[in-house]
Write the structure tokens for this entry.
Amino acid sequence: MPLTIYRKDDADMAPLAGSRVAIIGYGNQGRAHAMNLRDSGIEVVVGQRPGKSFDRAVEDGFMPGSAQQASARADLIVLTLPDETAAEVYAAEIAPVLRAGKTLGFVHGFNIRFGFIEPPQGVDVIMIAPKGPGTLLRSLFTDGKGLPSLLAVHQDATGQAKQTALAWAAGIGAARAAIVETTFATETETDLFGEQVVLCGGLSALTKAAFETLVEAGYEPEFAYLECVHELKQVADLLYAQGLSAMRDRISNTAEYGDLTRGSRIITDETRAEMRRILSEVRDGSFAHEWISECRAGGNKFRQLHDADVDSPFEQAGEGVRALMPWL
């Protein structure tokens, strides 16, 4: 099924003219959305608790208040909070002031897809999910460019939900690149799967296993790190910018032959079966409920897993390698 893609001529800012947008959470994504929308001529209010992000919002010229104060004043309420805290903030501060005719916006579909947030029937529920971090969204915008973003409508109470979403996307600069229509379910499921299998989980486990294999065989940790981690960036950059075939055209023939003949020995039928199990856990909600339960129980397991790698030989070798390149 072909993708539905919107660009500049399709995304009219008029639906947000005279409207006020509340950005709830002034972190990586929130800051970029708030500043880009303001620079596009939209009135923006910020909901942020006191702390570093609150102070940064003040430095950027906003007058942040509570999530409830900002939401009460806004026509479009955009949640840019972490997945694990959004539902609690929504229930305590946003739901009490969420009136019919308002629009609730998300930058990730997690809480809607898995039912942690259940908006009332009278409001529009939309998503604009930039495919990159907020820092990139902001830097591209200031350079006159845009970051491709996903658009989804979960609930169209007013009949104008998609037009509001397109205006929001145009306001953050996404229409300069591409706005790709999808659903909350597709965005959430593919995002979680990609993080777990490739971008974070798969990459972390693969590089650590390769590093440990070389070290166990007697090679110096710094050499192992250089080969298995440091050089990863140049290959990833080629793949990102030009695709798989062009990447292979730019590495050595020896490297390409090793790629073509040995890669399938790493990604085996057993690995693919595990990928399917992980996707199943994402789709049936078991991962989402496991994660939220972990957070609500205090996050001890999460902290233990995080801390396990902090002073590992892998990280120590990385510090040594990076010390050779002070410009990093």
About this structure: The longest helix spans residues 184-199. The mean pLDDT is 96. Residues 322 and 328 are 7 Å apart (CA to CA).
